[in-house]
Amino acid sequence: MINRDWTKVDLLRHVRHDWLNKLQLIKGNLDLNKIDRTKEIISEIVIQAQNETKLSNLNFPNLTLLLLTHNWEPHSFQIEFEVLNHMKCNELDDQMVTEWIRQFFLQLDDALKPFGENHLSLTLEPQEQGIRFFFDFCGTIEKTEMIQTFIEKQSPGVYIQQGEIGDEEFSLEVLFQQDT
Known about the structure:
The chain is α+β, with helices and mostly antiparallel strands and 180 residues long. It has helices at 8-31, 35-56, 61-69, 94-111, 144-152; strands at 78-83, 119-127, 130-138, 158-165, 169-177. Helix 1 packs antiparallel against helix 2, helix 3 (61-69) runs parallel beside helix 4 (94-111) and helix 4 packs antiparallel against helix 5 (144-152).
């Protein structure tokens, strides 16, 4: 996994590129007179922007940067995410959460089939005393034991409820909670 320091210009360049791609997709569907598909694309863009806003408002700048830039870098998997509410997690350490997620992503990069159709869906549920992540993966896992070993490691303030890990999918629930 690339551990890149993004400059403001780099960020703006990637955001502009993404928006141009979305506009071209809309224009192409309009040119083909696919009005229903155009409306679907616009709805998807709105939902994505709303989730990016919720993520940015969580008060987790490092996590936000990690998730927003992940798909711009070469990885074995692509992510999409949803944030379930507008609650902030002021009591939780952004760096701790981000580092755990970064390490988990490193394990996934090594455990998955390179260049496969690997997709990780994250759902974030902010709570008063922490934040809950739901990870749902679909793709090709070559080293399930690597993921299993990482999950079994205990980290303070990280509580994991594991689903089944197979060769093509897994689900995982992780609660990051402020130690009291």
